[in-house]
Amino acid sequence: MAIDLCKKNIGPTEKYIRIGAGGLLTVLAGVGVVGAWGFIGLVPLATGLLGSCPVYTLMGKDTNGGTAQAETHAHGGACCGGSATPAEPTAATTAPEAPAEEPSTPTEAAAEASAEATPTAEEKPAA
């Protein structure tokens, strides 16, 4: 069983925190404010930019809303378990139906109300 380390398993909030903290720590190390140990900030910076944490994958952790099984990195290629062809649209991705048109004039509104209130021959009770 192969483990796919490219699955996106970092949620948006955690991603921004990793990028910010890792970037800051790396810059501070680069300008000499902190020691060389500050370059460890490259790890959270890289995982934040990629949206994937290999340690999370090994632990089975997912802060990306449980979508780590289906989503891969940006291009969605087959290299990380993604499909090379686009998936069929689902109900969640299809456009909703347009609402019914509203009558544009009061006369049209009255005509529609009258038509709805008048029973048809099928609806009239037998005498």
From TrEMBL:
It comes from the Bacteria. Residues 75-120 have a biased composition (Low complexity). The chain crosses the membrane at residues 21-46. Keywords: Membrane, Transmembrane, Transmembrane helix. Residues 7-64 form the Inner membrane protein YgaP-like transmembrane domain. It holds the Pfam family YgaP-like_TM. Residues 64-127 are annotated as: Disordered. This is Inner membrane protein YgaP-like transmembrane domain-containing protein. It comes from Methylomagnum ishizawai.
